[in-house]
Amino acid sequence: MHEATRKIISVQNLSKSFAQTGQPLNVLHQVNMDVFERDMLAIVGPSGSGKSTLLSLLGLLDEPSSGHYMLCNSNVETLSNYQKSRLRNENIGWVFQNFNLIEDMTVAENIQLPLRFNKNIAKAEYAKRTTDVLAKVGLPDKANAYPAQLSGGQQQRISIARALVTQPDILLCDEPTGNLDSENSAAIMALFKSLNDSGVTIVIITHSDDVANDCHQIYQMKDGHLSKKFNA
């Protein structure tokens, strides 16, 4: 199924441990996975199993203890901190359980925050990109609103718009429906499926079976070990 698509993520024997008194705490154990362009996959598992740690490594927010990671054809191990930051800002969009919107900034100002860290995008493009992503998430008239004026479902749509504004190759989503009721969760998943159909690659960490079952692939994380559970 992936013969004509580009490999976005390739992870080989990725491990992560944290120093503590006595023996190191091993959180991830030789994880292997490939994510291809236009994939939409879920990573499920109990709390503390290593899901968020893996997502932090994939998103270049932390570094592995060992193993190999290729992101968008770049060998992450060989990159400087500046190069990693640039790769992250240009290729990855983040969506979190907590919407992380700044309350005293308008929707448009919140959406444009990632653009300030991307030197390849001219300020003259900010307004058009903002308009485009608000249309994509179904909130074209909310640019001048403030977060407190929006419902929880609307705030999560704005956080997704913010993640999309740099036109990243991949969205990394950490429990994106965790703070939403079932109706808003279904609406957010419908939005993700629409974005995926348009070419956006999506990786979702979730405790929700409904969310996982909407994805093409499901990976199971247990005690730091990752295995493929389902492939559509």
TrEMBL record:
Keywords: ATP-binding, Nucleotide-binding, Transport. GO terms for molecular function: ATP binding; ATP hydrolysis activity; transmembrane transporter activity. It comes from the Bacteria. One of its GO terms (cellular component) is transmembrane transporter complex. It holds the Pfam family ABC_tran. The keyword Transport applies. Residues 9-232 form the ABC transporter domain. CDD domains: ABC_MJ0796_LolCDE_FtsE. Belongs to the ABC transporter superfamily. Macrolide exporter (TC 3.A.1.122) family. This is Macrolide ABC transporter ATP-binding protein.
